[in-house]
Design goal:
Strand content: under 5%
Number of domains: 1
Order of helices and strands: HH
Structural class: mainly alpha
Shape: rod-shaped
Distance between the termini: 59 Å
Radius of gyration: 28 Å
Helix content: over 70%
Number of strands: 0
Largest sheet: none
Length: about 80
């Protein structure tokens, strides 16, 4: 959010003063802010999905059985 606000201020300053370089720097800073926001959102979403997927695939281990018929299994 901070980058987007600073970028907007810089862009407006460039427009008012007629300084094209400052205007473009402001637009670039806004793009950085947007990229950071998207990365943060994806990280949060990915974390939730991964946790849900792990919980869904977790199963209780099956008891071991002796492959030989008629033999008791170890506790």
């Amino acid at each position: 959010m901070k980058d987007k606000v600073q970028g907007k201020a810089e862009e407006l300053k460039g427009k008012v003063t007629g300084d094209r370089a400052t205007e473009l720097k402001g637009k670039a800073r806004q793009a950085v802010g947007e990229a950071k926001r998207l990365a943060r959102d994806l990280e949060i979403d990915t974390g939730r999905e991964r946790t849900e997927a792990v919980e869904a695939t977790e199963t209780k281990p099956e008891p071991e059985t002796d492959p030989r018929p008629g033999r008791p299994t170890d506790p």
